[in-house]
Amino acid sequence: MPSKQDSNDDTEDVALFDAEEETTNRPKKSKIRHPVASFFHLFFRVSAIIVYLLCELFSSSFIACMVTIILLLSCDFWAVKNVTGRLMVGLRWWNHIDEDGKSHWVFESRKASSQESKTVSEAESRIFWLGLIACPVLWVVFAFSALFSFRVKWLAVVIMGVVLQGANLYGYIRCKVGSRKNLTSMATSYLGKQFLRQTTGDDQPS
């Protein structure tokens, strides 16, 4: 159900309906279940930061450095938004346009089940959130550094890093917070029904 509307944009929190197929023999929670996804979750964003810090030492072409960094940031944005978040922590956010031309922002979280605790990898969760939070913070630091050191030509590159990685951070925080809100509302509704049922039972004549 739509939970927020602002300038013709709707946002909704729903359960992830196409969770990955899981085998009957599941590894332990502490092991990394998706090593390839975990690698690429960090590879593109860390590579973009390394290229930004070291590119002037190996190349005098600003255009080549800028294109390389933006390409890495774009690959990171797509991979984190569409692949690693879904596989590593069961979260996903996306946007779609309905038949009326209205834009809907959807924040999804995988439904918790009796076997969900067996499938969630604590190591993958730590890797995901550490990379998701730390790298945008570094790009914000780079933005202030470029501004105060008058490296104006790098501001566009740094702002691109802040925007792309900040968007993923915001989207996944909304997924996480939204799923907790749904659980809270469900618990509140259940307790309310139980209270009303008990009150009605007490009021009935014996």
Automatic annotation (TrEMBL):
| Major location (coarse) | membrane
- List where the protein spans the membrane: 36-54, 60-80, 127-148, 154-173
Start and end residues of each stretch annotated as Disordered: 1-28
**InterPro entries the record matches:** TVP23-like
Task: Tell me the domain of life.
Answer: Eukaryota
Give UniProt keywords alphabetically. Membrane, Transmembrane, Transmembrane helix
Q: According to Swiss-Prot or TrEMBL, what is its membrane topology?
A: Multi-pass membrane protein
The record's subcellular locations are: Membrane
Composition bias of kind Acidic residues appears in 8-22
**Into which family does the record put it?**
Belongs to the TVP23 family.
Q: What is this protein called?
A: Golgi apparatus membrane protein TVP23 homolog
Q: What is the lineage of its organism?
A: Eukaryota, Metazoa, Chordata, Craniata, Vertebrata
